[in-house]
Amino acid sequence: MKKNISIGMALIPILGLIGSAVASIFIWDASMHIPLLIGVAAAAIVAVMSGWSWTEIEKMMVSGVARALPAVFILLIIGIIVGTWIASGVIPTMIYYGLSLIHPSLFVPMVALVTGIVSITLGSSFTSIATIGLAFMVIGEGLGFSGGLVAGAVISGAFFGDKLSPLSDTTNIAPAMADTDLFSHIKHMLWDTIPAFLIAIIMYWVVGLFFVPKSTVNTNTIDLITDGLQDIFVIHPLLLLMPVLVIFLMMKRLPAIPTLIGVSFLGGVLAVIVQGISVSEVVQIMTNGFSVTSDIDALDSLLNSGGLMSMLSTVAILIIATALGGILETTGAFDALTAKIMDKVRTTGSLISSTILSTFVIAFASGEQFLSIILPARTFTKKYKEMGIDTKNLSRSVEAAGTVGINLVPWGITAVFAMNILGPSPGEFIPFSFFVFLVPLINIIFGFTGWTITKKQYPETKEIYRRD
After folding, report:
1. Rounded to whole angstroms, how far apart are CA atoms 366 and 287?
2. How far apart are CA 20 and CA 41, in angstroms?
3. How far apart are CA 81 and CA 286, in angstroms?
4. Would you call 290 helix, strand, or coil by DSSP?
5. Distance, CA of 455 to CA of 466 (rounded, Å)
6. In this predicted model, which residue has the larger pLDDT, 353 or 345?
7. Residue from 95, 170, 87 nearest 133 by CA
8. Which residues form the Na+/H+ antiporter NhaC-like C-terminal domain (predicted)?
9. pTM higher than 0.85 for the full model?
10. Is 466 left (phi over 0), alpha (psi -120 to 50) or beta?
C-alpha cells in the first residue's frame, strides 16, 4: 500500500539538498552534482518508506530524464555552435564592435548593453561574467565607478542575454519542462525581457550620472582585447549576419534541433572560408572547443570555450535534476509542498504569482537554477492546461524567477560565482542588479492585468477558469 507523503516527509529531500548545497558552495568548493545526487537518494528513501518499490522509483527517474532529452540534444549542439562561432570569427566580431561602443560618459549603461550582446551571442551568463564582465570591472575601477554598480550592470546584461539566447541551457530547459517549444518560449519572453532591460538601461544611465569619471581614462584593457581579436581573427561586419540569421529562424518558429544543427555547421563552413581553418581543425573544435594562447589572459578566457565535450557537465546536472524531479513529481512530494498554494489558485494573476513564488522558494532553498526551473514547471503544467492558459506563460514565469531572479539569493550559485569573479559581495551588487528585480515584477503585473497572457485550450482541459 502506497501512503500519501506528508509535508514533513516531502521536506526531507529538499532539506537534504539545501544542506549539501550550502556545504558544496561554502565548504567543499564543488559543483551541484553531489548535492543533487544526495537529493535523489533522500527522495528515493522517502519513496521506499511510502510504499514504492525500487523498480517503480527507477521508472520515475527514467520518466523525468526522458522529458529532458530534447534539451540534452540541444545543449550538446550548443557546445558545437559556440566552438564554430568562435572559430569562424562571429563571436569575436560581436565582442570587437561591442567594445568599440564604450564611452566613459555612458559607461554604466554600456556595460549592461555590451555584456548583454556578448551573452546573447555566447548563450552563457557565466562565460560573459568571467570574461567581458571581468574586463569591465577593471575599466570601471579605473574610471572611479562603484564596484557594486558595475557588477550589477554586468549581471543584468549577462542574464538578459542568457534569458533570450537560443544557445542558453536554461532557455532550453524551461520550455522542455513546461511542455512548449523553444522558439515560442523565446518569442513570448520578449514581452517581459525587453521592457525590463530598457528600464534597467535607463536606470543605469541615471545612476551613472551621480558618478564623475576621472579626468584620465585608462582604456588599455579595451585596446588590448580589441587589438588581440584583430591579431587572431578576420573581423568583418558581415559576420554579424550570422546572429541575425538565428533571430530570423527563431521568429519563423522552425524546429529547434535541425535549425541549430544547420547553424553549427554553417559556423564551421565560415571558419574554413573566412578564417582559413582546415576541416579537420573544425571537427576538433566541434568536439573539444576552440583553443588559443595569447599574451592576454582575459582574451584567452573568452575564446577558449565551446565544443560538445564542454556541455557534458551541464548535461549531467540536468539529468540528475530531472531524475530528482521525476521522483518528487510522481510520488506527490512536491505536490504536498505546494498543495495549499494550488488550492487557492483561481485566477491568472494568482497562478502567475504562485508560479513565481514557488520558483523563488526552490531557488532560495537550493540556490540552483536547473532545479528552480524544473520542479515548478513540472508541477504547474497541469494547472495551466486546466485553466486554458498556454504553457509558454509558465515557461516564461519560471525563467523570470529561476534564471534571472535567482541572482537575488546571496548564497545561490550565480551570486557566489559573480562574487568570486567580479569581487564585490552579493550585498553590494544585488541592489544594483535592476534587471533581476524588474523581470519577475513585470510578469506578476502581466498576470494580474492579463497583458501578453496567451490562452490555449488543451485536449485534457476539463475546466475553464476566468482571468483577473
Report:
1. 32
2. 12
3. 8
4. coil
5. 11
6. 353
7. 95
8. 157-451
9. no
10. beta
